[in-house]
Design a protein that fits this description.
17 helices, elongated, three-stranded antiparallel β-sheet, disordered C terminus, Outer Surface Protein A, domain 3, seven-stranded mixed β-sheet, about 400 residues, about 45% helix, alpha/beta, Rossmann fold
Length: about 400
């Protein structure tokens, strides 16, 4: 182990005996009491020394035997310590790619704040290379989202869509103006390839067969048609529910951005649950949806660049949190924001007893209320999502 105090956190002394690591409250930590010699020793925890050398230099600085090991253990338990040589064989292989590591140092620094254990950040970054994500939809939101995931190190990001690129599909960070007239799917794939910092490791034929059997880590439904994200069709999601494939809805409808729900089949509310809950609350809902879906008039989507970028960014962070094994806030929840204020708010998607997905049986007794705006229901949904993180990590 080559300990390093996480460089993502700025260090400052609150007084002569108390040191604060970090500025932002979400990840900051205060440790004390800490004497002057120990404070000076912190500068040696830069990832260039192993424990034997650190112990020797600690003795030279007058620190008592066992003090260095105690300090390192204390920092590690506080989530303030990383290991410059951690991450196992996959981490070692990633560190050998110098150009890739230089490009992804900001991502690695960010991961170090959410992966508390030493070596956890590079382990997560290396694990992303083996993941497979499919984005269905190559519009303003879908292509930017796919590029973000590829740029974050996800090994295989596949984009699917039909038709050809239109002028309105062009988006900074997404489809370029040069792609107008080309097949959407082909143009999107080029964007994804350019965004990726590294090609995924080549698999043998036997490994590829195993990947096909394992299936996709996540499917992201990013339709260009706002109706399909506002009122997702339960029938089209049936294959994903049946196969147990996690999927995330994302898009823009009439100047309203939508991220979620992230559906964990059999555990959280799905498109069918959402449809049935809406029908229970509004008897005219099925009639409205039928009219919206039967309309043949071609409409220009109300999806401006800034909102599309915000939606793609939030969706990418939610997807990466799930892929990394955390519990994203979009699990069983729809996040929505409308222009001009773009104020994000959450609407839980509760499992419905009449939906064949079976999620209602698992969540029975967990709901305190069905009021979507209630903070109590929101807390319960987030608690349920957190409890599912460990279970669903095995499917990734």
């Amino acid at each position: 182990m080559h300990p390093i105090v996480k460089p993502a956190l700025r260090r400052a002394w609150r007084d002569l005996n108390t040191v604060q690591f970090g500025m932002a409250p979400a990840h900051a930590m205060v440790l004390g009491p800490m004497d002057t010699a120990t404070g000076s020793f912190l500068d040696l925890l830069d990832g260039t020394r192993g424990m034997p050398l650190l112990r020797e230099q600690g003795r030279e600085m007058g620190l008592p035997d066992g003090h260095v090991d105690g300090l390192v253990d204390r920092l590690a338990r506080s989530g303030l310590l990383d290991d410059a040589t951690g991450g196992g064989p996959a981490g070692d292989a990633l560190r050998e790619k110098k150009e890739v590591m230089e490009r992804m140092r900001p991502d690695l620094a960010s991961l170090s704040l959410v992966a508390p254990g030493p070596g956890g950040a590079v382990e997560r970054l290396a694990a992303r290379r083996a993941l497979r994500v499919q984005v269905r939809g190559a519009g303003r939101v879908g292509v930017v989202l796919a590029a973000l995931l590829a740029g974050a190190g996800v090994g295989e990001v596949e984009v699917r869509d039909l038709g050809r690129v239109e002028p309105g599909d062009v988006m900074p960070g997404g489809l370029p103006v040069e792609a107008i007239g080309e097949r959407r799917q082909d143009a999107a794939r080029r964007v994804v390839r350019r965004a990726a910092p590294d090609r995924a490791p080549r698999s043998s034929s036997k490994e590829r067969e195993g990947e096909a059997a394992r299936g996709l880590s996540l499917v992201i439904l990013a339709p260009r048609d706002g109706l399909s994200v506002h009122a997702p069709d339960p029938v089209s999601a049936e294959p994903l529910i049946t196969s147990g494939t996690p999927h995330l809805y994302v898009g823009v409808v009439e100047a309203t951005g939508v991220v979620g729900p992230l559906v964990l089949p059999g555990d959280t509310g799905c498109a069918g649950c959402l449809d049935q809950v809406r029908s229970d609350r509004d008897p005219t809902w099925p009639r409205l949806v039928a009219q919206w879906r039967s309309g043949r008039q071609r409409r220009v989507p109300a999806c401006d660049l800034a909102l599309a970028a915000a939606v793609a960014g939030l969706a990418a962070s939610q997807a990466l949190a799930f892929l990394d094994g955390d519990a994203p806030s979009a699990s069983g929840v729809r996040w929505e924001a409308s222009l001009p204020g773009c104020d994000w708010h959450a609407k839980p998607v509760w499992p419905h007893s009449g939906c064949p997905c079976g999620a209602a049986e698992k969540t029975k007794g967990e709901r305190a209320s069905e009021d979507e705006e209630s903070h109590a229901t929101m807390a319960g949904q987030q608690s349920h999502a957190a409890g599912l993180a460990g279970t669903w990590r095995a499917h990734v």
